[in-house]
Design brief:
single chain; alpha/beta; Rossmann fold; Arc Repressor Mutant, subunit A; 6-stranded parallel sheet
Length: about 220
């Protein structure tokens, strides 16, 4: 394990929100094993500057402006194999978790669990991987959740994704960007979901989805 007397770890951050990015820089800089912390506001900017070797840890938010954090993780993994990529995000949808792991992430941390960040950094620096307890529980429940296509509502995979994102408070524009869809397409999906679940608002949709075990 890296110690305060052998301070050499480098940490990169790709985070869209400026205030949270600054907070992360300050917090991570205080870790006794971390020497260098560098951050970028988006994936395009990071890729312009990045070249192997990888940092010791690369934290990526999913909700970036021009490309999603999952797309960035995939491109970094293709460019430099073996990077310690960790998703640090507010999104807890199971599809995002699985896609992140599929595209090279070794960890998935929610922003509301930031108090334990030093502990997680220690794990990553010792070649460990981690899913926070809330994420691990989410994955466990997903294995026991009904297949949306087999439910009485006959939801498609895309419609299920839309429901999960809406339940996390995302607006149409954000949903479109994360799913690489046009905003009009998202609105059409939402309309079909409303019809299938027989609801008339986002509040009703979330309540119905929870009652039916869809989220």
């Amino acid at each position: 394990m890296l110690s305060a007397n052998n301070k050499k770890a480098s940490v990169y951050i790709v985070e869209n929100e400026e205030s949270f990015r600054s907070f992360l820089e300050q917090k991570i800089s205080g870790h006794p094993a971390v020497k260098t912390v560098v951050s970028w506001p988006g994936g395009e900017e990071f890729l312009q500057d990045f070249s192997p070797p990888c940092p010791d840890i690369l934290f990526i938010d999913i909700r970036l402006k021009e490309m999603s954090g999952i797309d960035l993780a995939r491109k970094v993994s293709q460019k430099a194999e073996g990077c310690r990529i960790v998703m640090l995000t507010a999104l807890a949808g199971t599809d995002f978790i699985f896609q992140s792991l599929k595209n090279g992430a070794i960890g998935y941390i929610l922003k509301n669990d930031i108090d334990n960040l030093y502990h997680y950094i220690d794990i990553f620096l010792n070649d460990g991987a981690i899913l926070t307890p809330e994420i691990a529980l989410k994955i466990h429940r997903s294995f026991h959740k009904r297949n949306p296509a087999e439910s009485e509502f006959a939801l498609t995979v895309r419609e299920q994704q839309i429901i999960e994102l809406i339940s996390q408070g995302l607006k149409t524009k954000e949903v479109a960007r994360l799913l690489t869809l046009k905003e009009d397409s998202v609105r059409q999906y939402v309309k079909r979901v409303y019809q299938k679940l027989q609801v008339n608002s986002r509040v009703e949709l979330i309540r119905k989805a929870e009652e039916e075990g869809l989220i």
